[in-house]
C-alpha cells in the first residue's frame, strides 16, 4: 500500500501569521521598555534582548528608535482605527462606537504612559512629539472627520462645511478633563459603561436630535 504524502499547510499563511506575531511581540516588548525606562534611556539593544531578536531585525523591519516608538503608538491606535469602518446601519451609532473605543484607548494605562513620556521628552526630541501627534491624535481626528462626513448635515451643530475643524473640536471634547485627570493620576481608566456614558454626553454637544 502506497503511503499518502503528508498534508502541507498552504504556503505563505503560516509564515505571514508567524511574522505578524513576532512583530507584535517585539512592539509589546518595546512598549514596556519605553514605559519603564523612558525614551532616552531605552536602547535598541535592550529591546532586542527583551524581544529575543537580533538588533538587525529591528533596524531592517521597523527602523531606528524613533521609528520603533512610532510603531508602538500605531499598534495601539490600530485597536480603534482598524475597527472603525462604518457598518451598514446608523452613522450616529458608528460614531458613538468609535468614540467609546477611542476613549478606552486614550485613557488606558499604556496610552497615558506614552503620552506622559512624549510630554516630558518633547523639548529634547521635538521630532518624536511631532510623529507621535501625527500617528496618534491626528490619526484619530481624521477618522472622526470621516465618520462625521457620513452623517446628514442637519445632524451637525457645528459647521458641516469644515468637518476637519469640527472633528478637532470633537476630539478635544472627548478627551477633556477625563484625559487631564488621567494624566495627573487622579482617576483610574474608565469602565466600558463610563466610557459609553461620556461619549453619549459629548455627542449631545455636537449633534442635533437623539444620540
How many helical stretches?
Answer: 10
- Total DSSP E strands: 0
- Beta-strand percentage? under 5%
Query: Which whole number gives the mean pLDDT?
Result: 90
Strand-helix topology:
Layout: H1 13-41, H2 44-51, H3 55-61, H4 65-81, H5 91-106, H6 109-121, H7 126-135, H8 137-149, H9 163-183, H10 192-203
Helix pairs in contact: 1-2, 1-4, 1-6, 4-5, 4-7, 5-8, 5-10, 7-8, 8-9
Commentary on this structure:
With about 210 residues, this protein is mostly helical. The chain has a domain at about 65-205: Tetracycline Repressor, domain 2. The protein contains 10 helices and no strands. The chain is elongated, with a radius of gyration of 21 Å. Keywords: DNA-binding. It holds the Pfam family TetR_C_7. This is TetR/AcrR family transcriptional regulator. GO terms for molecular function: DNA-binding transcription factor activity; transcription cis-regulatory region binding.
Considering the chains and any ligands shown, give keywords for the structure:
about 210 residues; mainly alpha; Tetracycline Repressor, domain 2; about 0% strand; elongated; TetR/AcrR family transcriptional regulator
Amino acid at each position: 500500500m502506497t503511503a499518502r504524502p503528508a498534508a502541507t499547510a498552504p504556503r505563505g499563511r503560516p509564515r505571514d501569521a508567524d511574522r505578524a506575531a513576532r512583530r507584535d511581540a517585539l512592539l509589546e516588548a518595546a512598549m514596556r521598555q519605553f514605559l519603564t525606562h523612558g525614551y532616552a534611556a531605552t536602547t535598541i539593544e535592550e529591546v532586542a534582548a527583551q524581544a529575543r531578536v537580533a538588533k538587525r531585525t529591528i533596524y531592517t523591519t521597523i527602523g531606528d528608535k524613533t521609528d520603533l516608538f512610532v510603531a508602538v503608538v500605531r499598534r495601539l491606535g490600530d485597536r480603534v482605527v482598524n475597527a472603525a469602518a462604518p457598518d451598514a446601519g446608523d452613522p450616529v451609532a458608528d460614531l458613538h462606537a468609535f468614540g467609546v473605543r477611542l476613549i478606552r484607548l486614550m485613557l488606558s494605562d499604556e496610552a497615558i504612559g506614552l503620552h506622559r513620556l512624549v510630554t516630558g521628552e518633547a523639548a529634547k526630541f521635538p521630532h518624536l512629539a511631532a510623529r507621535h501627534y501625527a500617528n496618534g491624535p491626528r490619526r484619530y481626528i481624521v477618522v472622526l472627520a470621516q465618520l462625521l462626513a457620513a452623517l446628514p448635515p442637519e445632524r451637525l451643530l457645528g459647521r458641516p462645511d469644515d468637518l476637519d475643524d469640527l472633528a478637532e473640536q470633537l476630539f478635544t471634547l472627548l478627551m477633556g478633563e477625563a484625559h487631564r485627570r488621567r494624566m495627573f493620576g487622579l482617576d483610574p481608566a474608565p469602565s466600558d459603561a463610563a466610557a459609553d456614558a461620556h461619549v453619549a454626553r459629548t455627542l449631545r454637544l455636537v449633534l442635533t436630535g437623539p444620540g
